[in-house]
Design a protein that fits this description.
224 residues, mainly alpha, Tetracycline Repressor, domain 2, 2 domains, Homeodomain-like_sf, NicS_C, DNA-binding, HTH_TetR, Transcriptional regulator, TetR family
């Protein structure tokens, strides 16, 4: 049997890509996310990704073009998931303080529970954001996140609760920074200072204090 016939048989036998292309692509992206997070763009290998999926190397190229195309799609999927999680919080119907609290809690939890996302962002920073810049989807997704935070801030200001000299983009930076460092520097921080902050109790305390820091920063009556 020729190479094309062999690949087709392999793909069908390992996952039935003809019957479930969306499922196969989702499987590829999940495996690739772990591989890129562990090895970076240059270190990840399509052969290794294919070996851990339900399909073939040929079909990876068919769906994603090349390794850089797959990496870009992985970035898009990573950002899509975090923004989708924010959307499901349904914050528009909550009082502004509760909405901001829920958003901070979600961000802290998401980053803590998805270290591959943090590693991917760190890797993309090594590449100076070059692949992220090529994705219109990521730009739209993250613009929506700032718009959502703008609505929370506006409602908080109108209620006389939030200070009016903080831009939503800066607030997003503050929330992201506190939640990101908790994961990005976990290995070095815990080796230098011990792992107490990364115990279950330590993380619960950190989560609560991150919320308090953000609220103290934003609430007019918490700035004394």
């Amino acid at each position: 049997m020729d190479e094309a016939g062999s690949d087709t048989g392999k793909a069908t036998g390992r996952g039935g890509w003809k019957q479930d292309p969306a499922g196969v692509q989702s499987n590829i992206l999940a495996v690739a996310m772990s591989e890129f997070a562990d090895n970076g763009l240059s270190g990840a290998r399509i052969d290794e990704i294919a070996a851990k999926t339900r399909t073939s190397k040929r079909m990876i190229y068919y769906y994603f073009g090349d390794k850089e195309g797959l990496y870009r799609r992985v970035l898009e999927e990573a950002y899509r998931k975090v923004r989708e999680g924010e959307r499901k919080l349904d914050l528009d119907h909550l009082p502004p303080v509760e909405a901001l609290t829920r958003l901070v809690e979600f961000t802290f939890d998401h980053h803590s529970q998805n270290p591959d996302f943090i590693r991917l962002v760190m890797i993309e920073n090594i590449h100076h954001g070059a692949y992220l810049e090529r994705s219109d989807l990521i730009g739209r997704l993250n613009a929506g996140a700032i718009e959502k935070l703008e609505l929370i801030c506006r409602r908080g200001r109108e209620a006389g609760l939030f200070r009016d000299d903080v831009e939503p983009l800066e607030l997003h930076w503050q929330i992201s920074a506190l939640s990101f460092f908790n994961v990005s520097n976990r290995a070095t921080f815990s080796r230098i200072f011990g792992g107490r902050l990364y115990s279950t109790e330590g993380q619960e305390t950190m989560r609560r204090h991150v919320v308090e820091l953000i609220l103290r920063f934003m609430l007019k009556d918490k700035r004394s």
